[in-house]
């Protein structure tokens, strides 16, 4: 039997990740990509189109795990590049501050956020994006909505796991909802 050494720090095997998810909360970041005008007012909100593990298509925020020994800022940049492409040009400050903290539970109803796989704690950010976005990896498309369109019931019902609630919180945070 050959013993393999993990050469990428911070990554868990699928079995190790499943075991960790069953025992402790996992740290995530959620990012709401936005376009802003010269005055810093949000004019567009970018939402990904994804296919879930069950085959359903939904709208989603940029989201992903923070790796062991990875700074939160670096995790944000990694996930934004992974989902939006290397030329998205996100403007993440040197010391980013989340607009909220979302707790996802595998049981419905504890919070508005649900993840059937785990208890996850996510730091949520609004991130201005200035470059050309080309969805990659498991993102099928990226659609830019006006803030009003993004807050609409039609778009909200296309989001799963409570991400529609998180999107509305982001829009309120940047002054786009009363």
Automatic annotation (TrEMBL):
Record carries keyword Hydrolase: yes
Keywords, ordered alphabetically: Hydrolase
InterPro entries cross-referenced by the UniProt entry: DUF4916 (IPR032582), NUDIX_hydrolase-like_dom_sf (IPR015797)
Protease keyword on record: no
Any GO MF annotation of the entry: hydrolase activity
Protein name: NUDIX hydrolase family protein
Organism of derivation: Microtetraspora malaysiensis
Lineage: Bacteria, Bacillati, Actinomycetota, Actinomycetes, Streptosporangiales
């Amino acid at each position: 039997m050959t013993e393999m050494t993990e050469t990428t720090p911070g990554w868990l095997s699928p079995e190790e990740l499943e075991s960790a998810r069953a025992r402790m909360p996992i740290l995530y970041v959620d990012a709401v990509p936005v376009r802003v005008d010269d005055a810093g007012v949000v004019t567009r909100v970018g939402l990904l189109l994804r296919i879930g593990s069950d085959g359903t298509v939904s709208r989603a925020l940029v989201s992903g795990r923070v790796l062991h020994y990875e700074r939160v800022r670096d995790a944000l940049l990694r996930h934004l590049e992974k989902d939006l492409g290397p030329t998205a040009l996100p403007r993440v400050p040197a010391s980013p501050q989340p607009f909220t903290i979302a707790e996802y539970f595998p049981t419905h109803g504890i919070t508005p956020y649900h993840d059937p796989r785990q208890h996850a704690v996510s730091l949520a950010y609004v991130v201005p994006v200035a470059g050309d976005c080309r969805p990659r990896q498991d993102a099928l498309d990226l659609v830019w909505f006006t803030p009003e369109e993004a807050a609409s019931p039609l778009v909200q019902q296309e989001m799963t796991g409570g991400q529609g609630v998180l999107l509305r919180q982001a829009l309120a945070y940047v002054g786009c909802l009363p």
